[in-house]
Amino acid sequence: MSRARITTPSSMGEALDFLRSAMEDRGWVALFASCKALYEGRGASESSEGDVLVIIKPDRTIIVHGPSGYKPLNWQPSGSAITLSEQSGHLEIRALRRSPRELLVLECGRVYAIAALQAPQSPEFYMYLSESEIRDVLVEHPELIEEGLRIAGIERPVEPGFIDMYGYDREGRLVVFEIKRVKAGEQAARQLLRYIEAIKTRGLKDVRGILLAPDFTESAIRLLELSGLEYKRLDLRRLYELASKRLSARGTKSLLDYMRGSKE
Amino acid sequence: MSRARITTPSSMGEALDFLRSAMEDRGWVALFASCKALYEGRGASESSEGDVLVIIKPDRTIIVHGPSGYKPLNWQPSGSAITLSEQSGHLEIRALRRSPRELLVLECGRVYAIAALQAPQSPEFYMYLSESEIRDVLVEHPELIEEGLRIAGIERPVEPGFIDMYGYDREGRLVVFEIKRVKAGEQAARQLLRYIEAIKTRGLKDVRGILLAPDFTESAIRLLELSGLEYKRLDLRRLYELASKRLSARGTKSLLDYMRGSKE
DNA sequence: AAGTAAATGTCGACG
DNA sequence: CGTCGACGTTTACTT
């Protein structure tokens, strides 16, 4: 049996039946129709009838797209209660959200086509780079952090856990790094602080600690400055480029290869 | 004949043909597929393979939705140049935006279902051609620009961005083309000039630059003549006729398909 | 749960 | 082509 089903329904009853069965059991629906939208909630809107693409996702997010532009004409977020019915020759789709109370009603005069997909396998979408990939790039390009830095090791076990990366600055002082792939919060700052204090209690006084992240929360910066620690913003795009180069040098096709386009 | 068409393609070639013809005349497309997404531009992202819904709107907005949430996983705004191709059993969809320079590449390993809707045929929209479609026609019909011209490549990255198209004239001189779908202004002329200067600074002196558009502003023409560049008016009606023919002739692997491949 | 800041924010208006 | 402001902003994170 196929996971995908499609139809160009010849009647509203047929369309309704198809939609009902498609929406059972985590169904996913794309519906081309001519319809009118009514919305009431935080704002209010009413549209004249026109061609739209209605998407219903497995999590019951509903999105109504017009023929142009990035933004949907109407939508209702995940978890809204969707009910289908036939009203005097029209297919009516209602999506109700409880808090805040918002209602979206679609009145479809004509249904051109419906496609449905069962039980989607979600992509493990990840943005930019993993923490270890960032670290690998920084090991090869310590100048991105500061001039004269020499990386000496990674994943070094210390009392409370593992130090992501460490090295020595141009004056020979030990520098300990904590790397975060996403915005670093107070948690990350505290983690670095613990490592630094653990090292200092072992007698090594002249230690620098630097938190590396694409961004920092206010509270993280406050704690770092209070504790005499440092932080340095990472340019993820730059890191991404270098990581791609690294990977393509190993024969893995990366986005940069696509961007290079045709070569002669 | 119905405005809507649907298919659950049994091969990538079939999917590609369906998509190509669906994208004629400001068509809409909804595509259920398992695919991997690569994006680089203002940000950068990469996803593992997973089920997504790809929407292509009549204005060439492309939106990639995952199985949950309001926000798309990836997208490219209206007017981006969308090209379709088959790459070693994968369906590849590329959407290129020039300013800011952003590229989205979708590698679909499986295509579950495609639904397409033909937009209402108001006369002005009937003649709609995207920049990439104009370029594709010109690649196959360089004689529309001048006799003896040979097109050598498209979407070539150069310092400031991407060259739309380039080739060699009957005397073997390199010719760089900038294509505009609408009336070309000073901006477009400057863009071409930047490309030409970038190439000249690399040592290649004998380069021609030609701006291609249905019309030109006075200031654009002034700048072009001042800079020793050329311009050539495009006959959109003629291009449209050829584009329609191109798309209706399916299954024929064109030069474009080879050029889109990363190497020869 | 409420408040705050970022986003590939998008989108429109205006100089 | 910039900058400014609004958005049913959404989303993630802190309090």
Descriptors:
DNA-binding; 2 domains; disordered C terminus; 9-stranded antiparallel beta sheet; Protein Yojf, Chain: A; 264 residues; Trna Endonuclease, Chain: A, domain 1; elongated; 5-stranded mixed beta sheet; alpha+beta; homodimer
What percentage of residues of chain A falls in helices of 4 or more residues? 25-40%
> Largest interface, and how many residues on either side?
A-B, 55 and 68 residues
Topology pattern of chain A, helix = H, strand = E: EHEEEEEEEEEHEEEHEHEHH
Low-confidence stretches of chain A: 259-264
Give the strand content of chain A.
35-45%
Describe this structure in words.
The structure is a homodimer of 264-residue chains. Chain A has 264 residues and is an alpha+beta fold. Chain A has 2 domains: 4-118, Protein Yojf, Chain: A, CATH 2.70.180.20; 131-250, Trna Endonuclease, Chain: A, domain 1 (3-Layer(aba) Sandwich). Chain A has 6 helices and 15 strands. The first copy, chain A, has helices at residues 12-23, 131-140, 186-201, 218-226, 236-248, 255-260, and strands at residues 4-7, 27-40, 44-46, 50-56, 62-65, 74-76, 81-87, 90-97, 102-118, 125-127, 150-158, 161-168, 174-179, 207-213, 230-233. In chain A, the strands form 2 sheets. In chain A, strands 1, 2, 3, 4, 5, 6, 7, 8 and 9 form a 9-stranded antiparallel beta sheet that branches. The first copy, chain A, has a 5-stranded mixed beta sheet with strand order 11-12-13-14-15, with helices on both faces. In chain A, strand 11 and strand 12 form a beta hairpin. In chain A, helix 2 packs across helix 5 (236-248) and helix 3 packs parallel to helix 4. Chain A is elongated, with a radius of gyration of 27 Å. At the A-B interface, strand 1, strand 2, strand 4, strand 9 and strand 10 of A face strand 1, strand 2, strand 3, strand 4 and strand 9 of B. Strand 10 of chain A pairs antiparallel with strand 3 of chain B, so a sheet runs across the interface. The structure holds a DNA duplex (15 and 15 nucleotides).
